[in-house]
TrEMBL record:
Keywords associated with the record: Cytoplasm, Metal-binding, tRNA processing, Zinc
Domain tRNA-guanine(15) transglycosylase-like: 14-387
Main subcellular location: cytoplasm
Gene Ontology BP annotations: tRNA modification
Protein name as catalogued: Queuine tRNA-ribosyltransferase accessory subunit 2
Family to which this protein belongs: Belongs to the queuine tRNA-ribosyltransferase family. QTRT2 subfamily.
Signal sequence range: none
Cofactor note: Binds 1 zinc ion per subunit.
SUPFAM superfamilies: tRNA-guanine transglycosylase
Cofactor: Zn(2+)
CC per GO annotation: cytoplasm
């Protein structure tokens, strides 16, 4: 069964190793890390061999349930689980309830189940259907069914309701899980919900911790969807701190939709271990390339100018004749072979290759950022990384 061991790191930072993962018992993952975002079982825009050329590719493939759920009968017939079905058998599969980049509409959950939004529209999951899908998918880790439909405006009554429901779902799930042959090697992450109500959050943590779960997903501060990019952790920082204080230190905590690098570092410092990588996809979809700096300057590079924004938008006409790479010194395939001008041309002529090239760069950039985050933690240089990251914030203005 999945194991999580904290490492001894300078300055008291939190870093750990996850091991003995379901179908990949010989592999380990260092925390903090981001998972490899997938849609419908594959990385967006990238074929398998293009994907496998990326450096620092996360071992954990993140497969949101909402998009895959429609195919669960086919996966059941296949018998070998969603990892093999999606040709990702060399990765650890984590199955979340929602897709962080797809809007989850509010008001569609009740005591019988939770609605997820896939390609075919709304799908209502009760615990029985949810567990049938998990038994077909046989992921290495899955998030327990939960009602995270709360935000800063939710009433106390609503917060009580979501905690009641989520705990009752968890008990039904554990019942089925513990009897299941197919899920013997699979770990469950319990969902911590309760909106902005401290008493309900504390109740949810205490009850969830007392049940046999191997990790925790913290949600219910906002509805997942593209707008979560603008969510400020400061809105919930005290409550999040309180939640993490009473969670056991020796189990990993996951939070989806914590996207820009400053938010990632802030959440990490509060005690979050696992993040998602749908942000590079969202950035790609708006024709942009990530350009924030994560390389701590050496004496040689000290004083070099930092970019003013986290990303640049390649549809801007100023890139029409810009023959530099998307990002100077970037070692990704796109930057080593193509120019801003070429990507600008591909975008103007609506060529699909534009999304492929941007996705390669944005994934590469985000994965390297997490590598840099882990390195700065083990070298005791997190403060230096923060100084770099916390400078540029705004989205670029675009001239077409
Ligand atoms: Zn690049």
């Amino acid at each position: 069964m999945m194991k999580f061991v904290l490492k001894n790191v300078k300055n008291g930072y939190r870093a750990g190793v996850i091991s003995e993962l379901g179908n990949q018992p010989d592999k380990t993952v260092d925390t903090p890390f981001c998972m490899l975002y997938t849609r419908g079982g594959s990385a967006p825009h990238l074929s398998r061999d293009v994907l496998n050329r990326l450096k620092n590719l996360p071992l954990v493939a993140h497969m949101p349930l909402n998009i895959l759920a429609d195919h669960h009968e086919a996966v059941r017939k296949f018998q070998h689980g969603i990892g093999k079905f999606a040709a990702m058998e060399d990765r650890v599969v984590y199955c979340s309830l929602h897709d962080p980049s797809t809007l989850v509409k509010s008001g569609y959950n009740d005591k019988h189940g939770v609605s997820v939004w896939g390609k075919g529209g709304k799908l209502k999951l009760d615990t029985e259907l949810f567990m049938k899908i998990q038994e077909s998918f046989q992921p290495d880790i899955y998030q327990a069914l939960s009602d995270g439909d709360t935000d800063i405006n939710s009433t106390r009554k609503r917060c009580i309701k979501v905690v009641d429901r989520t705990l009752s779902f968890l008990d039904s799930i554990l019942d089925i899980h513990n009897k299941s042959e197919r899920l013997k090697k699979t770990a469950i992450f319990g969902s911590i919900v309760g909106g902005y109500n401290e008493a309900e959050r504390v109740r949810c943590v205490k009850e969830t911790v007392s049940r046999p779960v191997q990790g925790f997903v913290i949600e219910g501060f906002f509805n997942p969807g593209p707008d979560t990019e603008h969510f400020q952790i400061n809105e919930c920082v005290n409550l999040l701190q309180k939640i993490i204080e009473i969670l056991p230190v020796d189990k990993p905590r996951l939070m989806q939709s914590i996207w820009p690098p400053d938010a990632v570092i802030q959440a990490y410092e509060l005690g979050i271990d696992i993040f998602d990588s749908s942000y590079p996809y969202v950035v790609t979809e708006r024709s942009s390339a990530l350009v924030f700096t994560y390389i701590i300057p050496t004496e040689e590079t000290e004083g070099e100018e930092l970019p003013e924004t986290y990303e640049i938008n390649l549809t801007d006409k100023k890139y029409f004749a810009d023959f530099s790479p998307l990002l100077k010194d970037c070692k990704c395939y796109t930057c080593e072979n193509y120019t801003r001008s070429y990507v600008n041309h591909l975008l103007n002529t609506k060529e699909l290759l534009a999304s492929i090239l941007l996705m390669i760069h944005n994934f590469h950039h985000y994965f390297e950022f997490f590598e840099s985050l882990r390195r700065s933690i083990s070298d005791g240089k997190l403060e230096d990384l923060k100084k770099l990251i916390n400078k540029p914030k705004k989205l670029p203005s675009v001239e077409r």
